[in-house]
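Researcher: We're teaching a course module on how sequence relates to structure. For the next exercise, students receive a sequence and then see the predicted structure as tokens, so they can try to spot secondary structure elements on their own. Here is the exercise chain.
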Amino acid sequence: MIKNHYKWFLTEDEKMTIKCMCGAKAPYVRNMTFNKYKIDGWKCKKCKEIYYEPIQAQKILLLNKLKKEKVKAKLGRIRSNLILRLPKNIEFALGLKQGEKVLLEIEGKNLKMIPA
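Model: And here is the predicted structure for the students to work with:
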């Protein structure tokens, strides 16, 4: 069984440092570059190993995957309103929540949705 070398879910106090696999302390660093995005994580001062914040990294990897494929969404109706149902992976990747407002723009015959 593989032993975790650091905790995945940490409180604000615990985010300061983690123990690297080399045994040295890795301090928490904000705004590191990961796939052209800024992401938080830990960087070891001794061996320069980088540990990215797992949830942030997962969202970025999912966004990159979604950009390469077409996603089908279903239209529905509630009373007189037409609704757009988004797949769960888009909801997670964009950090959308039920009841949250988004901006819609019409570009030609295309509809563009922007999280507000």
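Model: If you want an answer key for the exercise: The chain has two helices and eight strands. The CA atoms of residues 70 and 90 lie 12 Å apart.
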